[in-house]
Amino acid sequence: MKKVLAIVPAAGSGERMKKEIHKPYLEIRGKPILVRTLEGLLSSNVIKRMIILIHEEDRERATKIIDSLKPRVVARLATGGKTRQESVEK
User: What is the pLDDT of residues 4-36, one digit of tens each?
Assistant: First the structure.
């Protein structure tokens, strides 16, 4: 089975939601959206590596989340752009 790279655009600000916290860290049923996303991706056996695009100011928070999930794949953080399109084009 071919292995793939997953690019996770997690630099959303949640501006339209009018929240103080960035969107990836908003909780749904007790878990941040980013945790739910990564858990789903990590349950797949086709992902070889992940690049998670974040706001630079969220680096510590994102690192803690990744470390807590103990991913079996290489997960690298990168700073996202001003828009989702800019983030994934990098």
Answer: 999 999 987 777 777 778 889 999 999 999 999
**Residue 8, strand partner residues:** 52
Report the first-to-last Cα separation within the chain, whole angstroms. 27
CA 58, CA 2: separation in Å to the nearest integer? 32
Give the dihedral of Cα atoms 43, 49, 52, 57; nearest 10 deg: 120
SS3 4: strand
DSSP string, 32-89: EHHHHHHHHHHT-SSEEEEEEEE-GGGHHHHHHHHHHH--SSEEEEEE--SSHHHHHH
Tokens describing residue 86: 């800019």
pTM: 0.85
Cβ-Cβ contacts under 8 Å for 80 (sequence gap 6 or more): 9, 10, 11, 53, 54, 55, 86, 87, 90
